[in-house]
Amino acid sequence: MVDTTWRRVARSRIAVAAAPGSPRVRLLSSAVILGVIVLAVIVVPAVVNLNQQFVDLAAANRPPSLAHPFGTDELGRDVLLRCIYGLRVSLMVGIVAAVVSTVLGTLVGVLAGAAGGWVDRLLMRAVDTVASVPHLLLGVVIVAVLGPSLTSVVISISLTHWLSSARIVRSEILSLRGRPFVDAAIAGGSSRLRVMGRHLLPNVAPQVLLATTLMIPHAVWHETALSFLGLGMPPHMASIGNMINDAQRSLLTGGWWMSLAPGLMLVVATLAISGLSGVWRDRLNPRRRSELSW
Predict the structure, then answer these.
(1) Where are the transmembrane segments (predicted)?
(2) What are phi and psi of 271, to 5 degrees?
(3) Crossing angle for the helix pair 257-284 and 240-251, nearest 10 degrees?
(4) 93 touches 220 (CB < 8 A)
(5) Tens digits of per-residue pLDDT, 126-176?
(6) Cα–Cα distance list, 98 to 95, 154, 158, 223, 261 (Å)
(7) Which pTM was predicted?
(8) Helix (H, G, I), strand (E, B) or coil at 169
(9) What's the rounded Cα separation, in Å, for the pair 12 and 35?
(10) Rounded CA gap, 127 and 107, in Å?
(11) Nearest CA among 30, 143, 50 for reference residue 97
């Protein structure tokens, strides 16, 4: 009887794990897709040296084929190669900007949560003030002041996306301040700086890392939007936003592949990152751990 019950439970768990929407399937599919994308953006540029200013008008506006799986653009450039180069730029900007914004938000959140009082109120009012302005509008202003460049885009995204990290870290710090181990450290003579570095920061590290991964897709889309508006990479360089912007003219002449290919690459890459982040977020949630146990 016990053996039959155990087998029934095992079969039900296997069925749940193999379901199309289960966390394991989502984790595996996201990892495979993201692994292929990362491998492509690392290997292809090292093997194929793409001349950003190459023009071949004889091969212009060719639809997808075996020679050009994603077709060619209006200047005869291979769309697949440009998508890979552009996605490399977008992922690099997204990762760097996500890390910088999370570090900035973590510092603000730890300082506000640990200090409390007027420091907490002042920093949170600053967060609310910045959050009242749309991210994209503020990012456009920052890039316009600094001048269009890759560095300006990273600074723009970093200065407009640290707010959520600051709020998350502050809430975690406030919940940790009343824990017995923090009270014991303070009673033992530990300074406020030591309590922050030894007891508070290590306990918020999982949430900080999760916030960083969740920020990467948002930063990638933000960089694409700025490049689409002409405030990112130079026009001749491969960028997802630049390619979608250039493809607008080709849509009226039937060149659907020029906008479909970069848009599809962008959506697939960000969905893969979001899928991994979602599984990680569920694993940090105590209510979902039993569903995600292997």
Answers:
(1) 27-48, 91-116, 136-163, 200-221, 256-280
(2) -65, -35
(3) 140
(4) yes
(5) 898 888 888 888 888 998 888 888 888 899 999 988 888 888 888 888 887
(6) 5, 9, 7, 11, 25
(7) 0.79
(8) helix
(9) 30
(10) 13
(11) 143
